[in-house]
Amino acid sequence: MSSCSRRHHATGPGLVTAEIQLRSDATFRLSDFGRQRDLHVDNAETVDDVGPAGAQTASRRLTDARMLLIACPYFVLERIDLVPHSDWQLNAISETWLLVLDGHAQVGPMSQSEGEAAFLETDRATGQVGGNHFSGLIAYLGTDPRQGLSRALTGRTAGSSVHSMEVLS
């Protein structure tokens, strides 16, 4: 089983659990917690990969703001850390998830705070970091880090295809 599909959970102070799940029309129910719905144990065992974990992708810095955490056959997970008083653009060319770890963001009409997530699909989001830094996790479909996922701007971008992403201090 690859490390990105393993479902071991250990939580405690200072830890963030981000479980990335891909869309699927399949549901294999192993337990129903007392309800009387059908279970699908045989189907679940057929698709489960219980072999040894594959080699983990080494975390590495992609840019000053981007750190690759995981790249596997299904998705890429990065950490983004934006410095205070900076303007940024996030280019989501396909399904992209943003989980706010520290700071606040306004993505289009929705306000995002620590622990909240935004889903972007074929969007460009611009952001302005206030007096404090902004940290988040970004996940997207693919096997390799995206070139041009984010870039620093010299000023705010306007236009109908650009959603406002204001990062507040």
CATH class of the largest domain: Mainly Beta
- Helix and strand succession? HEEEEEEEEEEEE
User: Largest sheet at a glance?
Assistant: 6 strands, antiparallel
**Rounded Rg:** 18 Å
**Amount of beta strand:** 35-45%
Number of domains: 2
Specify the CATH homologous superfamily of the largest domain: Jelly Rolls
CATH topology title of the largest domain:
Jelly Rolls
Mean pLDDT: 77
Total beta strands: 12
Record the strand order, biggest sheet.
1-2-3-10-5-8
Assign a percent range to the helix content.
under 10%
Shape: globular
Low-pLDDT windows of residues: 155-169
Helical segment tally? 1
Structural class: mainly beta
CATH architecture of the largest domain: Sandwich
Ends: how far apart?
41 Å
List keywords for this structure.
169 residues, mainly beta, Jelly Rolls, 2 domains, six-stranded antiparallel beta sheet, six-stranded mixed beta sheet, globular
Write the topology of this structure.
Layout: H1 41-47, E1 60-61, E2 66-71, E3 75-82, E4 87-92, E5 96-102, E6 104-107, E7 110-112, E8 117-120, E9 123-129, E10 134-141, E11 150-153, E12 162-168
Parallel strand pairs: 9-12
Antiparallel strand pairs: 1-2, 2-3, 3-10, 4-9, 4-11, 5-8, 5-10, 6-7, 6-12
What does this structure look like?
The chain has two domains: 1-8 and 20-56, no CATH class; 60-168, Jelly Rolls. 4% of the residues lie in helices and 39% in strands. It is built from one helix and twelve strands. Strands 1-2-3-10-5-8 form a six-stranded antiparallel β-sheet, with no helix packed on it. Strands 7-6-12-9-4-11 form a six-stranded mixed β-sheet, with no helix packed on it. It is globular and about 55 Å long. 21% of the residues are buried.
